[in-house]
Design brief:
- By secondary structure, the protein is of the alpha+beta class.
- It has five domains: about 100 residues, DNA Primase, Chain A; about 130 residues, DNA primase, catalytic core, N-terminal domain (DNA primase DNAg catalytic core, N-terminal domain, Alpha-Beta Complex), CATH 3.90.980; about 120 residues, 3-Layer(aba) Sandwich (Dna Topoisomerase Vi A Subunit, Chain: A, domain 2), CATH 3.40.1360.10; about 70 residues; about 170 residues.
- Helices cover about 55% and strands about 10% of the residues.
- It has 28 helices and 16 strands.
- Strand 12, helix 13 and strand 13 form a beta-alpha-beta unit.
Amino acid sequence: MIPQRMIDEVRQSSDIVDIVSDYVRLNPSGRHFKALSPFTQEKTPSFIVSPDKQIYKCFSSGKGGNVFTFIMEMEKVTFPEAVEMLAKRAGVDTSKYQRQKAKQEDKQESSQHETLRWAARMFHQTLESDAGRAAYAYLVGKRGLEAGTIRKFGLGFAPEAWEFLLDTARRDNIPVEQLTALGLVTRHRERNSLYDTFRNRIIFPILTVGGQVAGFGGRTLSNDPQTPKYINSPESAIFEKSKLLYGMHAAKNDIRKQETAILVEGYMDVIAMHQAGFTNTVASSGTALTRYQAKILKRYTSRVLFLYDGDNAGKKSMLAGIDILLSEGLTPWVVLLPGGDDPDSFIRNYGKEAFLEELESKKSSFQDFQLRCYRDAGLMENPDTASKAISAMTKSIALIADHVQKELYLEELSKKLDLSRQTLRKVMASSNDDRASRYESRNLNRQEAAQEPQAGQQPLSVSERTFLEALLESTSYGNEVLDFAASHETMFTLEHPAARAIFTHLVERFRAMDDKEGHIDITSEISSISMEQARNIAFDILIRLPVSQTVRPSTAELEQHARRCLTHFLVAVKNIMLEPLQKQKLEIIAQLQAAPSAHEQERLSKELHEHNQQLRAMEQEVGESIRGILGK
């Protein structure tokens, strides 16, 4: 268990706006910041960050939280790992806390992320040892890498031995079952034995945006044509290659500063580009660009420069990638390097200055690139194939959300093809009609599913929401409401399970406080509620509450605010206590209106009269109790 003092120091040293900005593009909106949700696909921003309260709320997904829950959501890590990541980012010295929990950390060594970090360290140490001398010479001599670059990207080496990793893991008490689950070792089916997956390979650790090791890529040093040149960690919950961009952790800040991302194909291309000073470069790592990868890029920039290989496979990948980028609101540009060069080989053969000149002189718009590809392929030579090529280009333009940009690209294409804009609009409309018919029913189904209430997701009643609003707001001004709630817990009957979870958690945490006059950190307490729905509802309430005064209020003002919160809380308590009786009254009235006989009507009338007396007596009793509490 992480000491609370360490959690508090890390949280106070981390600004949520700064943290979230690493993942989404935030825009000021009054006292808040807004962005497109990182959790869902949306066109209108509904993701809100409050710098005053240091919390976020996503209204499209319902999720909310603080810096810790945000990192947990984005990086798919546990709470302790999120604390460690933020501590490193904020420069918090955690050694003073870690000494207190050394034994506990020994038990946590078996976590999958720790195993991945261990493997990355082991591969890197091996590269810099005698066992990795040939591999190191290959990287420096043949690939032109500098020592600092090798360290920056944590490159490593896996020896040719079948059980090198296995033996090292046993020595370091790393569970073998975790190595198998992470694909670091492979089970031989026939022999029922284990062996290292990566052998005689340069190792490229693949990191998440936040710098967590997610998996590995390995390039063989063997000349055997039967040996795959590259292999990667197998797909898992931790390693989803389609959701990762190689080098993003190192490039994200420069992408934001330069407002452009350079997208290449392979690991070595990224490394060579960074070494040459093009530190805004990332790679799709041999896979076709995915929408998820485009969404990651969109958080940092609106412009992407394709720099794939100029062969047919590279051109085909870029043509497909153009539509993906356009559909995510990004503007693609393309550079085709001459001959058979990729960025890595071009820089090694001709140098950084020649490469920079090539980028500046050969950069073309996505439209020019499309037209060049179709002309080179001979598709523009006859009306039949030209019609299909033009249709493909208008489909790309149709993906552009900005109406002005769409018109400008349409006009540009009209001039290049010597076709009227009216003709191109008809082609675009025809292709859009076909696509719309395919997606219309799918979108309707999504809307219906979104409107359909989910099990256990019933909304809070007005009285329960008011109850929780007063309870949460009161914590900014002291513990008077919490103290009252803890002393009169049996009075409250909350029907909604999430409301019960929030109330019970806060009361228990208050009772556990040694200093009852101390301040309870409401955002941290909400984050530690085990029920996800309860956390999301609590953060939704919290972000809507008015912001506390920036200038510290006087003691008299604090007492005034606390008393107001207590009043609101008690009124909500009254409504909650009377609500069951009010519902019973309505049920009796409904039965009375539908009574089939005079005898039944008489019985229900009498029951309604008795119920009204009980309701008035309860109202009077609760009202007197509230007046007594407020008048004390």
